[in-house]
Design a protein that fits this description.
There is one protein chain. The protein is globular. Helix 5 packs across helix 6. Strands 1, 2, 3 and 4 form a four-stranded antiparallel β-sheet that branches. It has two domains: 163 residues, Orthogonal Bundle (Ribonuclease iii, N-terminal Endonuclease Domain, Chain A); 66 residues, Double Stranded RNA Binding Domain. The protein is of the alpha+beta class.
Length: 237
């Protein structure tokens, strides 16, 4: 079964990847980058043959592009607000949705032993492929075509990402599942003029305190603080 699956992928790859280029509106000069972007490490463990290095690069490129657009979108936004908004756009689950819209998973070369029927595994591969294709485009054509694709996909659906992200709720749920104390959200500081206050919130769970989160209002500061706590707890979100 594994041999048949891989043979089928190899046979369809040239045509499929041409279809990918149409979907992303970018024609590769060096198609080796494109092939690498869709090759899972189960097919090749060589760092220059599978997508992991491209995924690493793409993750950084996405951060840069999204950060710049956020600074344009929120010219008065502080670090806490920008961090919160960026986190919603670059999180794995959201990138997986974008990847799914492009049907990227249809073109992956992967061993059948990797069970893609498991939702978490499939979601991770979806997100990885999107990051890898951005990394591949960057090496092949530079930052501008990356920006074009990110604006047409991630940025175009930003309101959806911001609407569905609730780090505070996810943290409360995580604490309940793990049977640990419920998180408390405490105001550590409020600074700035009346028309533009900055709130600093600290999350505390049992006896453990986490780094503070900041925002232009209490709600956004709580969301940032909750995200930081989730990261420190290595919780999935």
């Amino acid at each position: 079964m594994s041999l048949f699956y891989n043979l089928k992928n190899l046979l369809k790859a040239p045509h499929s990847l041409s279809t990918v280029e149409k979907k992303i509106n970018y024609l590769f000069h060096n198609r080796d980058y494109l092939v690498q972007a869709f090759t899972h490490k189960s097919i090749s463990t060589s760092p220059r043959k599978n997508y992991e290095r491209l995924e690493f690069l793409g993750d950084t490129v996405i951060d840069i592009i999204i950060s710049r657009e956020l600074m344009r979108e929120f010219p008065e936004g502080d670090e806490g607000l920008l961090t919160q908004r960026r986190a919603a756009l670059v999180r794995k689950s959201f990138l997986a949705k974008i990847s799914k819209m492009l049907d990227l998973i249809d073109y992956i070369k992967i061993e059948a032993s990797v069970n893609m029927k498991i939702e978490k595994i499939a979601e991770k591969q979806q997100a990885n492929l999107y990051e890898a294709i951005i990394g591949a485009i960057y090496l092949d054509g530079g930052i501008e075509p990356c920006r074009n694709l990110i604006l047409d996909t991630v940025w175009a659906h930003r309101t959806e990402a911001w609407k569905t992200t609730n780090y505070k709720g996810k943290l409360i749920e995580y604490c309940h599942i793990k049977d640990i104390g419920s998180p408390s959200f405490n105001i550590k500081d409020i600074s700035g003029p009346d028309h533009q206050k900055t709130f600093e919130i600290e999350v505390k769970i049992d006896d453990r305190s986490f780094p503070t989160g900041m925002g232009l209002d209490k709600k956004s500061a709580e969301q940032t603080a909750a995200k930081i706590a989730l990261e420190q707890l290595n919780a999935p979100f």
